[in-house]
Design brief:
The structure holds two protein chains of two kinds.
Chain A: H1 2-13, H2 15-54, E1 59-63, E2 80-81, H3 83-91, E3 97-107, E4 110-117, H4 119-122, E5 129-131, E6 141-145, H5 146-151, E7 159-164, E8 167-178, E9 189-193, H6 194-200, E10 206-207, E11 209-212, H7 217-226, E12 231-235, H8 236-245, H9 248-279, H10 281-289, H11 294-338, H12 351-377, H13 387-394, H14 397-417, H15 422-438, H16 440-458, H17 461-472, H18 474-512, E13 517-520, H19 531-539, E14 543-556, E15 560-568, H20 571-574, E16 578-582, H21 587-593, E17 597-600, H22 601-607, E18 614-617, E19 624-633, E20 642-644, H23 646-653, E21 661-666, H24 673-683, E22 691-694, H25 695-738, H26 740-749, H27 753-795, H28 805-832, H29 835-840
Parallel strand pairs in A: 4-9, 6-8, 15-20, 17-19
Antiparallel strand pairs in A: 1-11, 1-12, 2-10, 3-4, 3-11, 5-8, 7-8, 13-21, 13-22, 14-15, 14-21, 16-19, 17-20, 18-19
Helix pairs in contact in A: 1-11, 2-8, 2-9, 2-11, 2-12, 2-25, 9-12, 9-15, 9-18, 9-25, 11-12, 11-25, 14-15, 15-18, 15-27, 16-17, 16-27, 17-27, 18-25, 18-27, 18-28, 25-28, 27-28
Chain B: E1 2-3, E2 22-26, H1 33-40, E3 46-48, E4 52-53, E5 56-57, H2 65-73, E6 74-77, H3 89-99, H4 105-114, H5 130-142, E7 148-152, H6 160-175, E8 179-183, H7 187-190, E9 195-200, E10 203-205
Parallel strand pairs in B: 2-8, 2-9, 6-7, 7-8
Antiparallel strand pairs in B: 1-3, 4-5, 9-10
The chains are: A alpha+beta, B alpha/beta.
């Protein structure tokens, strides 16, 4: 025990070192906690919202060609016939059934979901109650969640305007929604009477869907057989899970970035414990010589790491919780932009996440400490007191090269052998990171060898010493250098990937967005354009041609939710598709008239489709086989999209397309945009129900959303750099302590404070340069892996590989700057340190 | 002169050393011997009194003048050699000259030959024996022909025979006109000095 005390008391003498280690562990754990909480809260928010809205319903009856999400009322096929409800309740005797009208509405600038329900049947399925406190019934009553009423300062009796595309109406707040015991209705769901909703959405005689609670398999079978072909019975649970699954790749990518920060933290811990072993060699040598066993020494070192881990984890958990709200807002914002509407709020702290992250942090710390601990354990007592021994140990180039080679080999095998697994791709990615990091000592040695003659030629002793110290203190700085290299490589790799991605999206938008003006019924393109609007737009002066389109989700019984895009376009508009692969000629003809469809690359990858293949989907005429004419590039959704002509749509769903978006091609092109926009606003869009954008605005908005999506990665990459910088500071501070006598000698010999300061900065600068140079091949490998394996497996998108030399050089500069920033404080402290104090260390 | 900050280490020290004189300072551990050398090297300031070395008044000297003073006028020999581990023997010797922006390669060769280490010129300190390291340490202290060499227990970490070799170098330096102040516990080393002083309880006696 006394021996352990002797080890632990070392920390009291150097509190800054313990502080930096705690910071390293804490940031690593904090990032994992924050990302995990953000991901889980997003998942929970979605599941709770759907659970509260679904209530105890197990099944849903909806139209085949209708998304059951936000935009179902206004899709090409408008909901289901309400006579079905009578059939189910009266003829089939299913009492646990509730009809629903559901759709998105805007109230001022806030997006809400309007649910139209029948209270008499709804109470059987949903947990919330509508409390109107004796309020007089109005034709358009509205119940709002108490949380919304509070945040928006809404009182019972207030009149609120709700808008959905061309539909606009005044609703009177009739009461507040009280949450059920279990289910909390999201704060953005407002409820009205089903009849009011039918009138509002212009859906007389129609329903969005019918929710049911069905336990009896025979009854389910009977119901399925009874329903007409244009209507489907789906399990609500599997549907909700399938929708949540859409965000899986996005969430895995975030988790991987969080793990990267923890990995860099792990390097830091490894570096510190190694350093401590090196620095306390005499103490350990002494202990070993007075009878402390190898096992005891190992346990003491692990015990010390465990103490550090506990403090670091405690701080990390608190930091993580503080960071989680911020990340949660970013994650939900991205899910909202890319996948489905998700109400915001704040992240709830989940004990399991905290436990999991704590265990991960603890395990990682012990693992990182175990390696140098094991080295110390296996070292003979005499060797522990010889400095050169550790330098020799650190210079085992062949072992490091072997580790690197093996890691990269396994990674390559994993990539080649695993066809589509994203997790395997990430394992390969981490192996490449570890393998490349193992090359750090060899790289540093090579760089020093290269620079030594150059430094000698300059005649600067300071520079020569700085270069030689690169290798001379490798056992102290090697891992910190590797950690910085990994952090910079991750920044470079992800940065290049994002740049390549952005360029690909920009190129695609340039080709795809050919029209001059785009008009949609609502911000999310869910509300339909009325026939009169379409006719007026087409008849406007200066309009050369017009394309019409409708995106919708088909809840396919085999494949789950499928994005479909019904497009009525001109040949010029059709040529906007950037074709990746096609079979045969005259695509336009086959698309427009022969019933063939085109699928996006993500769609093709998801279902392993190539041009010429057939793909079957549900339709109002049963399952229909569609021939794939071509695969095209499309970055609008990672779920992929299938484009079909109006004729094909009619054949599948026995109805004309109810268009929600129009694209105008102007005779005078760009020059006429401003005037035409003004004219549309003044003549057609007087009530502001339409969403009208120029080509440039739409393109800018798309790129803005793109940039916003990757903002979160920027923060995580920055945190990884912070952890790495902490590692460098820690290593430098410890090195400064160990080299106090050397520095004091230099000062006594005639080095000025400034010269010493410059020398220290040169040393850290060279460390940064080495890390930056190492980061280039590492970053390029990561970029290629991210583009050609991870992105393809995550989202099904291929993209151009753009290597921007400025970004590559920028990463070296980043590494250099990070190291110099890290070296600033130790160098300042060094320059101010007492010569006599340093010499007393003799 | 008084020095030592809150704890007065040196008290009423009155020491006058002639140019080219070799003075040995003896005394028990903790008597302030090293502090005295640090004061003379302008490494530690004095609280009261005056210190003048090589016509430079040190009692009110600040940074960077003290560094420039040390660079030009002082050579220090350390008990534990203190060679810079990342510089070769030749580069360690060149270091003081480099700081003075001098490039006297002949002087380095001359000293290496005198040290009997010409074949070790390109070796790093960690492959040298203790005696060899200290010989390089002495050579580094004298290479720039300083006015004063301060030696702090130069043989304290060496065996008797090796210590004799190192002392011969220091004595030679004194004979060549360099003032030498040496702190030592070794009788044989002190015996080489022109004058022996005893420092006890912060006070100096002849």
């Amino acid at each position: 025990m006394l021996a352990l005390l002797a080890i632990l008391r070392e920390w009291r003498r150097h509190p800054w070192q313990i502080g930096l280690n705690i910071v390293g562990i804490a940031i690593g754990v904090a990032v994992v906690v924050a990302v995990d909480l953000a991901n889980h809260n997003a998942e929970r928010a979605y599941l709770e919202a759907t659970s509260a809205i679904n209530g105890i319903a197990t099944h849903r009856i909806s139209s085949v060609a209708v998304s059951t999400e936000q935009n179902n009322n206004d899709l090409p096929v408008r909901g289901i016939d309400e006579s079905l409800y009578t059939l189910i309740k009266v003829d089939l005797g299913i009492f646990n059934a509730a009809p629903v009208i559901r759709g998105p509405v805007m109230s001022a600038d806030r997006q809400l979901t309007l649910l139209g329900i029948d209270p008499l049947s709804d109470y059987r399925l949903r947990g919330f109650t509508l409390n109107n406190d004796g309020m007089e019934t109005k034709p358009f009553p509205l119940f709002v969640p108490a949380s919304l009423a509070k945040s928006e300062d809404i009182a019972v009796g207030d009149v609120i305007t709700l808008v959905n595309g061309a539909h606009k109406r005044l609703f009177t707040v009739a009461g507040l929604i009280e949450a059920g015991a279990k289910d909390v209705l999201p704060g953005d769901v407002v409820i009205t009477d089903i009849a009011a909703a039918q009138v509002f959405f212009d859906l007389s005689g129609r329903l969005s869907y019918i929710d049911l609670k069905l336990d009896d398999e025979t009854r389910i079978k009977t119901l399925r057989e009874t329903l007409p072909p244009e209507v489907q019975l789906i399990s609500t649970g599997s549907r909700d899970r399938a929708r949540l699954e859409m965000t899986r790749a996005f969430r895995i990518n975030l988790s991987a970035l969080a793990l990267l920060a923890l990995t860099i933290g792990l390097f830091l811990i490894y570096n510190t414990v190694s350093f401590q072993v090196v620095r306390r060699r005499p103490l350990f040598g002494l202990m070993r010589s007075i009878g402390v066993t190898r096992g005891q020494l190992f346990v003491y070192l692990l015990g010390e790491a465990a103490v550090l881990a506990v403090i670091g984890i405690a701080v990390g958990l608190l930091l993580g919780i503080a960071l989680s709200d911020f990340l949660y807002a970013m994650v939900t914002g991205t899910i909202d932009n890319l996948y489905f509407h998700l109400a915001g709020g704040s992240a709830r702290v989940e004990p399991f996440t905290l436990l999991k992250s704590a265990a991960l942090g603890f395990g990682a710390t012990l693992l990182a400490a175990a390696v140098p601990g094991f080295e110390a354990r296996n070292t003979p007592p005499r060797a522990l007191t010889v400095r050169s021994y550790q330098e020799v140990a650190a210079s085992h180039s062949k072992i490091w090269a072997g580790v690197a080679l093996l890691s990269i080999l396994i990674a390559t095998l994993l990539i080649v052998l695993s066809d589509r697994s994203l997790i395997t791709a990430f394992v390969a990615l981490f192996l490449i990171i570890i393998g490349s990091a193992a090359l750090a000592p060899i790289g540093v040695r090579g760089l020093a060898r290269l620079l030594t003659p150059l430094a000698a030629a300059t005649g600067s002793v300071i520079l020569l010493m700085a270069v030689r110290n690169l290798v001379g203190h490798l056992s102290r700085t090697g891992i910190a250098t590797a950690a910085l290299a990994v952090a910079v490589a991750a920044t470079l790799g992800v940065g290049l990937m994002i740049d390549s991605f952005r360029t690909s999206v920009d190129t695609w938008l340039n080709s795809y967005l050919r029209a001059d003006i785009y008009i949609s019924g609502a911000r999310d393109s869910s509300a339909s354009l009325s026939k009169s609007t379409i006719d007026t737009l087409a008849a406007m002066d200066g309009v050369l041609a017009m394309s019409l389109g409708r995106r919708f989700v088909l809840e396919d019984s085999i494949h789950g939710p499928l994005n479909l895009f019904a497009l009525n376009t001109t040949r010029n508009g059709f040529e906007g598709f950037v074709i990746k692969s096609a079979q045969g000629n005259d695509l336009w003809q086959r698309f427009s008239n022969s019933g063939e469809v085109m699928v996006s690359e993500a769609f093709a990858n998801r279902f392993n489709l190539s041009p010429g293949d057939s793909f079957a989907i549900d339709s109002h005429n049963g399952r229909q086989e569609l021939t794939i004419a071509a695969v095209y590039f499309d970055y609008s959704t990672d779920r992929g999209v299938m484009s079909l002509s109006p004729a094909t749509f009619q054949r599948l769903f026995n109805a004309p397309v109810n268009y929600s978006a129009a694209a105008l091609y102007l005779e005078d092109g760009d020059a006429a945009v401003t005037n035409t926009l003004k004219e549309i606003e003044q003549t057609i869009n007087t009530d502001g129900a339409l969403y009208v954008r120029s080509n440039r605005t739409l393109r800018d908005t798309s790129l803005e959303i793109f940039d916003q999506t990757f903002k979160v990665t920027g923060i995580l990459r920055l945190l990884a750099i912070v952890v790495a910088v902490t590692g460098i500071i820690s290593a430098l501070m410890a090195l400064m302590l160990e080299r106090a006598r050397e520095f004091a000698t230099l000062r006594a010999t005639g080095f000025t404070r400034m010269q010493l300061f410059v020398q220290m900065l040169m040393e850290t600068g060279l460390t940064g340069l080495a890390a930056g140079l190492l980061a280039i091949p590492m970053g390029l490998a990561l970029c290629l892996l991210l583009i050609h394996v991870i992105n393809l497996r995550s989202f099904g998108w291929s993209m151009q590989t753009i290597i921007d030399p400025a970004m590559v050089m920028g990463s070296v500069l980043l590494s250099l700057t990070a190291a110099l920033v890290a070296g600033l404080y130790p160098a300042l402290r060094l320059a101010r340190s007492s010569i006599a104090g340093g010499l007393r260390n003799e | 002169m008084e020095a030592g900050g809150s704890r007065c280490v040196l008290e009423s020290i009155d020491l006058d050393v002639a140019s080219g004189e070799f003075v040995a300072i003896e005394g028990p551990s903790g008597s302030g011997k090293s502090t005295l050398l640090n004061v003379i090297a302008a490494i530690e300031p004095v609280d009261r009194g005056q210190v003048q070395v090589a016509d430079v008044e040190l009692s009110s000297i600040g940074e960077p003048a003290s560094t420039h003073f040390r660079r030009s006028h002082i050579g220090i020999v350390f008990q534990f050699f203190n060679l810079i581990p990342t510089l070769t023997v030749r580069e360690n010797l060149l270091l003081p000259l480099h700081l003075l922006k001098q490039r006297d390669g002949n002087r380095v060769d001359e000293l290496l030959s005198k040290l009997e280490l010409p074949d070790r010129a390109d070796s790093f300190p960690d492959v040298l024996s203790g005696g060899e390291q200290q010989r390089v340490g002495v050579a580094r202290a004298m290479i720039h022909r300083p006015s004063v060499i301060l030696a702090d227990e130069p043989t304290g970490n060496l065996d008797e025979k090796t210590g004799e070799g190192v002392m011969a170098l220091i004595t030679d330096a004194a004979r060549e006109g360099t003032t030498v102040l040496m702190v030592t516990h070794a009788e044989s080393a002190a015996a080489r000095a022109d004058r022996r002083l005893l420092l006890r309880g912060g006070r100096l006696s002849g």
